[in-house]
Structure formats: C-alpha cells, structure tokens
Design brief:
Helix content of chain A: 25-40%
Chains: A alpha/beta (342), B alpha/beta (383), C mainly beta (117)
Distance between the termini of chain A: 50 Å
Shape of chain C: flat
Shape of chain A: globular
Helix content of chain C: under 10%
Structural class of chain C: mainly beta
Order of helices and strands of chain C: HHEEEEEEEE
Number of helices of chain C: 2
Distance between the termini of chain C: 36 Å
CATH topology of chain A: Peroxisomal Thiolase, Chain A, domain 1
Radius of gyration of chain A: 18 Å
Low-confidence stretches of chain A: none
Largest sheet of chain A: 9 strands, mixed
Oligomer: heterotrimer
CATH superfamily of chain A: Thiolase/Chalcone synthase
Chain lengths: 342, 383, 117
Amino acid sequence: MIGIVSYGTYIPKFRIRVEEIARIWGEDPEAIKNSLGVAEKSVPDLDEDTATMAVEAGREALQRAGIPPEKIGAIFVGSESHPYAVKPTATIVGEALGIGNYYYCADLEFACKAATAGMQLCYAMVKAGMIEYGMSIGSDTAQSRPGDALEYTAAAGASAILIGRDPIAEIEATVSYTSDTPDFWRRDLQPYPSHGGRFTGAPAYFRHVTSAAKKLMETCGYSEKDFDYAVFHQPNAKFPQRVARMLGFDEKKIADGMLVRAIGNTYSAASLLGLCGILDVAKPDQRILLVSFGSGAGSDAFAIRVTEKILSYPRSLRIWDKVKNCVYLDYALYLKHRRMIK
Amino acid sequence: MRVAIIGVGCTEFGELWEKSFRSIFLEAGIEALRDCGIEGKEIGAIYVGNMSGGKFIDQEHIAALIADHAGLAEFGIPAVRVENADASGGSAFRQAYMSVASGMHDVVIAAGVEKVTDSVDPMGVLSTSVDQEWERFVGANLPALYAIMARLHMHEFGTTEEDLAKIAVKNHKNAVHNPKAQFRKEISVEDVLSSEVIADPLKVLDCAPLSDGAAALILAKEEIARKLCDTPIFVEACTQASDYLALQCRKDLVTMGSVLKASKEAYRIARTEPREIDVAEVHDSFTIAEIMAYEDLGFAKKGEGAKLIREGETEIGGRIPVNPSGGLKACGHAVGATGIRQIVELVLQLRGEAGKRQVDAEKALALNVGGTGATAVVTILSR
Amino acid sequence: MVPRFWRKIRYRYDVIGSYCENCGSHYYPKRELCPKCRRKGKLRDEKFPDEGQVISYTIVNGRIIAMIELKNGARTLAEICSDKVEIGMRVKKAFRRYGEDGETGIIYYGTKFVPIC
C-alpha cells in the first residue's frame, strides 16, 4: 500500500481583510465577499517567502513522520512564486531538512497544481521501488496586480505531503486531465499574472476538474456515494462549491477542506491545505476525493482512503486551529510585506 | 628596563574635512617631537594604531605611507601598523613599549591615526570588529551588541537609562576645557534621553561619534628619558588580554573578561590597587561601556558601577575622575588614534599641564577596548 | 559572499553546533577546535535544541535582535520575529530570510526565532 505517510502545513500569521483592500479601490466589500466567499487572506511576513514556508511545512511533515531525514529519496516543490527563476527551492528545503545529498529533486511549475503533480511523481517513484519516501510541497506567496480582482484572494501558504509505504492514507488511484488552455498566465519577466476573466471558469477550472474527477471515478468504479470527503482547488469559495454540486457532492463533504474561507487562495498549496484540513479529522476507511486545478491547464484527481494508521498519527495541532492565530495589516503594510514598496 | 613617555602630540578630533590622513599624522607627530625636542631621525621605530585604512580610505600598508610622509623612510625606519579594532592605539602603544623595555630600541613613536569621514558608513566599518558570520549576519552591528549588554546590565543590577545619560553629560562637561575635543558644549540628561534611539536602549547621545584624528607619543628608555625630559612619565605596566569575539561565546554578558584579566595583571605588575589610581581614561565608545569599566577595573563592585556616576565620584574633583578629557563621547572616537589620545591626556594630567581640567594625580590608568571587548589594553602610568 | 555563505549553510539553516566528545562541552556557533581541550579535543557536529529563552535583546533598524539561551545552555544571537519581546520569553526556531545580496545576488536564509505561544 502506497500513500500519504505524513503531512505538514504552514500559514503566515498576517492577514488583510477584503474591507481594507476595497477601501483603497472604492469597491463594495460586501458584494465582493458575497461573490468570492472570502473575507480575508493570508500575507507573508517581511522575511518569509516560498522557500521559508516550504521548509516549515516540510519540517512539520518530517517531524510527525518520525523517520530519519536521510530516508527521503525525493523532494519536489511546486510554486508560481519560487524565489529564484533559476536555482531550485527544493534544494533549499532538502538542505534545511537535513536529508543528505542522495535524493531526486526538481522544482515544478504548473500553476496551482504543481504540487499534486509532485505527489504523482513521488507515488510513481515509490511504486517503482526507486525511493522509500518522497516529499511534494506546494508553496506560494501569490502575486496579484494592485486593483485587480485577484488581489482579494491571492494569498500565502505551504503544504508538504510525504509519500511512502504503510501510509496513514492510501492513494488508491490517480488520474490527470490536461490540455493547452490559456486561462491564466504570466509571461517571463512580467511581475504580475494576466487572466481571461470569465474564461477561467467553464473552459478552464470546471472542464478540467470535472473531467479528471469523472475519469477517476469511472476507472475505480466509484460514485460520489463512495466518498466521505471531497476537496477541490479553491481559488475562491464559489468554484469548489459549484463543482461539488456539478459532481453531485453534498456541501457537507467539502466543508472541512474549504481553507480558502479562512486564508484565501494559496495557489500551489491550496488543494493540499484543504486535504490536510480533512486529514486532521478523517477516520479510518473514509475516502477522500482530491482534485487540483492548475491554469494552463490541468487537473490531478486522487482517490485517497484513510487507513487505521491515522489513529496513531499525531494530529493534535489542526490547521483550522492554526489559522486562528492572526494579525491584521492595513493596505500600506500589506504592500510593504508583499515587497511592492521598499 | 623602565620606559618613559617624553613627548606627546595630538590633533583636534572631529570632522576634519580640510585635513587628509597624511596631514593629520604629520601634525600629531611633529607636535610630539617638538614636545621633547628630539629629531625624527633619532626614532628607532614607528608603531601605528589604525583600525582600517583599507575600509575607510582604501589604503593598506599605511605604516609605510606614514614613514614616507614623516620623512623617515629616508632612513629606512621600521614601521608597522597594529590593528585590534578600536584598541589598535593601545595595542600599538604596547608593542612600542615592549620594543623599548626589551632593549630592542631606545626611542620609538607610538601613534594612532584614523580618517573616518572620507567614508560613507563609518559605523558600518567599525562594525567589522564584531563577528561577521554570527553577529553581523543576523543584523547586529556594534551599537546593537552594546545595547544587548546594557539591557542585561539594567535588568540584573537596576542600572537606568538616566545613569547612562549621566556618563555622557559628565564627559561633555569635561570636554569644555579640552581644546582638542570634538564637542565642547555641555548637554543635559534630558538631551540624552530625548535623542533618537539607535539600538534600544542606547540613543544617539549614548554613542561616541566616529571622528578623524591622530595622536602620537615618544617613548624612551629611562636613561635617555631623564636626559631629555624634566618630567618623564613612566609606564608602570602595559597589559593586554583577549576574550571570545562573539558575545554569545562569553561567560558573562555584563562583564568584560578581557578588561578583568588585563587590569588584574596590570595592577599586579605595577604593584598598585585600584583605589590608588588618581585619574583614568576609559573606553566610553558607548555610555554603558564606562559603567562596566568602573566595575571591571575594580573602581566599583560588580553591578555597582552606576553608583559612582550617581554620586559624582568620577567627576573632576570626585574620588576617581574618569575621562577628564571628555572621553570618546565628547573628544570624539578616532578609532585607532583613541588609545594613544587617552595616554596623551594622562601624560598631560601627570605633568600638571591639563589646564582647567587638571586632576591632582600621581598614578593614572588608561583602558582601551576593541569592539565589544574581545581585546583590552590597560596602561598604568606614574610621575 | 557566495562561498562564505555556502560553507556555513547547514549551520545556518538549522541549529547545529559542536559537541566535544572529550570534555562534553557544547559550542555555538560551530568550532574547529575545542577551547578547553585544544588538540586533545574531539569535536563533532550536533543538532542543538530548537527552543530556548531570551537572555537579553535590543531593537535596531526595526528588528529585534536577541541573545537566546538554548535548552542545552549554548547561546545564539538571532532575530526574533515578533512585535514584542522580554527577558525570559520562551522562543523556538523558524526558517526565514536574513537578507539578500542586492536584487541580483543570492538570498541569505537562516534561523530566526518566534515566541512560543
């Protein structure tokens, strides 16, 4: 049995409220909160970035796994905001975790689904007998142009998933649906991303998430009744709610994974943080549907079945409790934290 | 062999825009030579204290430069720069002293010179005296490290920010009577407390300014000294000690181990007790440093340094006047020149040539410290 | 600063100091020679505790720099990521950016400390 052996998360403690951003641009905060289902988002500290958050999440996953660091045979870090355009974040994490020098390694980019792609790579390497454990980390300090709609949700966070045998949650199957769909992109050397507005909906997010989810369920012979939980990529609260309905999932099944409501869209970490929210409370034999989405575009779907081992896994520090500890910033401090003013 | 100081010279300390590195050394050196009436070619060697010609003015090999411009390269005089951060001057003095005491030379110059204002970030350069890998890297410059010592001293012994301010006030008051001092105006405790915070709890007026300046001493063996000079001032002891560079490696943050060791050794060699010292020049690069010096030199018990300043014991006219020249705070801190300037002042005091800041003194002590205390040089002089 | 930073990376990214097998002393930061045993000493790298408490501190350039005593008695100077600090405050390690070599140079990562709530 191969699957998730351990998981770790990191959310910076700073937040900015929708009201504060709307105040600057003269927009209606209630209308925005209603349309996005998000009231505030996380903001990194002045000395945090994708690498620092990836290390914190990775350290939590490693520490809770209780394995010697050298047994990790691969590290992949997926992000849209790697600190270097050339020089991997994953080696910084590898060094900080103290895993030695014999490991497979690369940084990945596939918008918000880079880290689930990393999970697939780790899964395959464990299955092939190439490694004993592999870690995939999604981490982002998402960028948004001031005044753009994305500013209300582009947030910061990291999640680390350790894959290996004898898991606390088995990966029963994984399927990907991919196409060349330019819904959201950032050209080289451009500071901010661009997007196709409403084009990011039906042709992008919904088409890929539903296609991957349906193919997965078809392959495994599952229906929505076979799943106790579902977690989808969450750029806002509305998209995952809608896609859950489209796939026939009850609202209750996605509630524990909707971290976007507390912290906004953490991009490469988003669907994984949602998964961790569910793993914090799931019971043995319960099944989770995880479907990520990365613009450009693609979705990775996973059928994950929780095992007995989760009962002896240290889950006392829950992510929904972690996100409660926060400090609110005004817009000027927010700009300083995002390094837009120096 | 007994060694005496027979000549002293010192420039004004301050922002000497019109004067260059080359000219200030010459000014101090010539004053010292005139003071004892000897010719330059009678000097056997030059020892120069200078923290960083390289970082302040992009010039290394400054001992050679100085020998050259002093006209002594003409005679091929041996010249060496001695560097121990801001204890460079005291360290140069000790090297000079040892060269005469050992019989190697008969007459030598011990000098110090620093040209700080030609650089854009003098405190940044002075901060190269701290551990670059483990202190500077985490954001601690020199004021920050003294602030950490101050905070703990306040926490453990009840020293207050007012106590620190009083050190600056005293030294400014003394400097009014020192024509070479950078700041010759009195300040109040309120002035210090309301000045901008540099590194909490230290404020701008808790920190000595970084200044241009040069000072020079002529040392001679006793036999020659007595021929050339009516009041040779004898070096009873000149000791030096080191300590771990990074504060985190020291045994006790509120004690400078190097000062303890060097002063104990100096008192032993000079057969003197702390209470027999009549006047002292100590290293007040930051006000807290003077309070710690009182304790580590044995003028006060550990933790009771603040008592001395509160009770006025270290004022001119007090039990043990400290920094009658105005100290680093009011005289200015010309880094490598400071250790020499301190001894110049004590020589003037012991000779009775200190004008309105005169202290009645037979025995004097100078303390020159490098960085946060990884080097300390203690010199005891007598008439 | 590239090679200088790189040589110390594992000692910056985590709290790793030296332990002398001869006399049992702990040193932080890491050393090449045991000051007590000198050539008789046998130093090896050791992972030091992640937690400690504040012995003293200052605030300079808007940052809190503190002397922290780790649980094994060794001391380290580090930035504390917090808006308040006091002597005796308990702290634990965090992985953060210490700075960068301008806009085009490398980024310096290292260990800072955060209050234990």
